[in-house]
Inverse folding.
């Protein structure tokens, strides 16, 4: 049995502080695809970045993550129940989930870490008839300047290239090679957007698993050199620039 791939517990606080927010349209689109809006399961929820957005559309959200550190830092919400459990066996969580209870099962920026055949077996177990299932991911951000984009790409693919976990490239490829054995449902184009200063962007990039791995391997923080490279391209570091993350959404119906 594959072990839990924990790339984020050591910096769960930074993850919560710096990760971008999902657009309201994502939860809306998934709610529209579900047969009803009773219960959603957010698998691999991290510290609830998307769980609370789902709670605005569903009567209840069961949010699970295999990282106890992430769950300990999750954002509280009256309609969200958090539990520590692997996505491949929701029965291990506090209370678990019974058969045939979920209107929506979603994994946001998480499915590439899962043992997918086992996760899909659990999806089929907990799904109501015609329930919706969605895998969501986002890869490299896009800025408002080609020179900045080029610098970020060099850092991501070059400096960090050897240090990314292998499953990261499933995200970079937009889940194109991921097995998704459910009849597809339509979903509109969606993206996350933000206005960030340079320190805010660097804070976000500090949460990347590739940055953490490179620092462990080399004994130095690779972001320090990158910050020196990008600073003259950015200008005033407090200037806020528009940043965009196109979302990949694999949306299907459980038979």
């Amino acid at each position: 049995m594959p072990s839990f791939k924990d790339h984020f517990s050591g910096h769960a606080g930074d993850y919560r502080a710096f990760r971008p927010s999902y657009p309201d349209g994502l939860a809306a689109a998934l709610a529209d695809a579900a047969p009803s809006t009773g219960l959603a399961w957010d698998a691999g929820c991290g510290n609830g970045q998307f769980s609370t957005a789902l709670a605005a559309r569903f009567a209840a959200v069961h949010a699970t993550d295999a990282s106890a550190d992430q769950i300990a830092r999750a954002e509280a919400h009256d309609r969200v129940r958090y539990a520590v459990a692997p996505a491949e066996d929701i029965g291990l969580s506090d209370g678990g989930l019974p058969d045939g209870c979920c209107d929506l099962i979603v994994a946001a920026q998480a499915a590439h870490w899962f043992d997918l055949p086992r996760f899909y077996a659990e999806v089929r177990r907990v799904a109501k008839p015609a329930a919706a299932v969605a895998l969501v991911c986002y890869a490299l951000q896009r800025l408002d300047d080609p020179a900045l984009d080029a610098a970020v790409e060099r850092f991501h693919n070059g400096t960090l290239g050897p240090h990314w976990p292998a499953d990261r490239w499933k995200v970079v490829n937009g889940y194109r090679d991921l097995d998704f054995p459910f009849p597809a449902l339509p979903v509109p184009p969606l993206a996350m957007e933000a206005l960030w200063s340079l320190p805010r962007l660097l804070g976000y990039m500090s949460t990347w698993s590739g940055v953490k791995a490179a620092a462990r391997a080399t004994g130095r923080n690779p972001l320090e050199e990158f910050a020196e490279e990008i600073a003259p391209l950015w200008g005033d570091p407090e200037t806020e620039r528009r940043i965009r993350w196109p979302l990949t959404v694999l949306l299907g119906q459980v038979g």
Summary: DSSP finds ten helices and seven strands in the chain. Residues 9-253 form a domain with the Rossmann fold fold (CATH 3.40.50.150). The CA atoms of residues 37 and 58 lie 5 Å apart.
